[in-house]
Write a structure and sequence with these properties.
This protein has about 425 residues and is an alpha+beta fold. It is about 30% helix and about 25% strand. The protein has helices spanning about 20-30, 60-70, 85-90, 100-105, 110-120, 140-155, 180-185, 245-260, 310, 315-325, 355-360, 390-405, and strands at about 10-15, 35-40, 55, 75, 125-130, 160-165, 175, 195, 205-210, 215-220, 225-230, 230-235, 265-275, 290-300, 340-345, 365-370, 380-390. A hairpin with a 2-residue loop joins strand 11 (about 225-230) and strand 12 (about 230-235). Helix 1 crosses helix 10, helix 6 packs antiparallel against helix 7 (about 180-185) and helix 11 packs antiparallel against helix 12 (about 390-405).
Length: about 425
């Protein structure tokens, strides 16, 4: 008797959003035998050029979202700008939405700060204000403005003001003196605001973690991030911190992943504030020295983890697919002593691919990723990763290639310093 052939069906992962993260997820899906289906809006750029199964539609339309959900095994995200009510309805009828709506709520900075503070996760001191509709403040905007001025005056006469929703790459963040903050708050008409003191940072770090629905958790080696005008400009591996601080940071990242119930990859951005003599009890450590605070999280693959494509045994994109499918997680160790990623940020309307050959000629070790996005001033249109034994040399090379691709005037000098 001849045995029946075993027929296997590749899992279908549905991604809401058609930007560069969906594009890089697709590149990781192919060798895994995972079929990626993308729901993109007509204005999305990046994924459609490489994802054959791209559906154009409005994810805020219930019928469109329902039809898309019925065609995939699990839903995940390229961005967090999704209707939580529609997603909750999908969850209620048994659709696997990963990360869940409960996790996506942490994209709101006000929700995030409050919940982390309640859980004992270290965050900067904060004040949440809702000038347009805080039921606890009947005086409304004027009361919120007065509270904002008082907060700034208690913290050296200045406060960092963040929109709780919608901000990214430096947008939705303002550094305001007490003399200006009252008028800003009183005339604000958007989402609730989160106020924080201006901290003297020694550096910024990121912990990438992955968690499966079954509860397996893995973290990557600690990353150091460099911000320019509120936008991530570089990511450095390894982070230049003592081993003890890396242990604490990775433990904090894993704790955050558990606290928010992450399903997939989560990026945890950290502030490091030096000079404290107090024990850092918030993450179970008795060590003294630099303090760690959670700045914010992204419950998805993230810019800070792009270098894992070349620098890690398992990239964040492969790991995210494994995690949302509840497959075993891959190893996360680094495959090079050093690695640096530099973002390619547009300086003009010229397509960076016109300069790609020159970048590869001058930096032969550069791993260039261009996103297929229309370039414009200040827009991230790609990234470059360089590996090497010497992190400083890798950093110079990565930035050299990124400068060429972006058409920055500094690259015209031919300097590699």
């Amino acid at each position: 008797m001849t045995a029946e052939p075993v027929v296997t069906v590749e899992p279908v992962v549905g991604v809401i959003g058609g930007g560069q993260l969906a594009r890089m997820l697709a590149e990781a899906a192919s060798p895994l035998g995972v079929h990626l289906r993308v729901l993109a809006s007509p204005s999305d750029e990046g994924a459609a050029a490489v994802v054959a199964d791209t559906v154009l539609g409005d994810h805020s339309d219930a019928a469109t979202l329902d039809a898309f959900a019925d065609s995939v095994d699990v839903i995940t995200f390229d961005h967090e700008n999704v209707d939580h009510g529609l997603l909750s309805a999908l969850e209620a009828r048994g659709v696997a939405v990963r990360p869940s709506v409960a996790t996506l709520l942490y994209s709101d900075k006000a929700h995030q700060r409050r919940r982390f503070a309640e859980a004992g996760i270290p965050v900067p001191e904060f004040l949440v204000l809702d000038p347009t509709g805080d039921p606890d403040r009947p005086a409304g905007a004027a009361t919120c403005a007065a509270d904002a001025v008082a907060f700034a005056e208690r913290h050296g006469g200045v406060a960092v003001v963040k929109a709780s929703r919608g901000g990214y790459d430096g947008r939705g963040v303002w550094m305001l003196p007490a003399s200006d903050i009252g008028a800003f708050v009183e005339t604000w008409t958007g989402a609730p605001l989160v106020l924080e003191p201006r901290l003297e940072l020694s550096l910024e770090l990121a912990v990438l973690a992955a968690r499966t629905p079954s509860g397996e958790v893995a973290t990557w080696p600690l990353l150091e991030t460099v911000q320019v005008d509120g936008m991530c400009d570089e990511v450095l591996l390894p982070a230049a911190v003592p081993a003890e601080l890396e242990v604490r940071a990775r433990a904090l990242g894993a704790r955050v992943a558990e606290e928010v119930g992450a399903q997939g990859v989560i990026a945890v951005e950290l502030f490091v504030v030096s000079g404290s003599d107090e024990p850092d009890d918030a993450h179970g450590a008795d060590a003294t020295g630099p303090r760690l605070f959670v700045n914010e999280i992204a419950p998805r693959v993230h810019n800070s983890g792009h270098l894992t494509i070349e620098a890690s045994a398992t990239s964040q994109f492969e790991q995210h697919l494994r995690a949302v499918l509840d497959w075993p997680l891959g190893p996360t160790h680094s495959v090079s002593p050093g690695a640096v990623m530099a973002n390619v940020v547009g300086t003009d309307a010229q397509e960076p691919r016109r300069r790609q050959a020159r970048a590869l000629a001058e930096v032969p070790g550069a791993h260039v990723h261009l996103y297929g996005k229309t370039p414009r001033e200040g827009r991230k249109v790609g990234h470059v990763t360089v590996l090497g034994d010497d992190r400083d040399r890798a950093r110079r090379d990565a930035n050299r290639a990124a400068d060429i691709l972006a058409g920055r005037p500094s690259e015209m000098t031919g300097s590699t310093s």
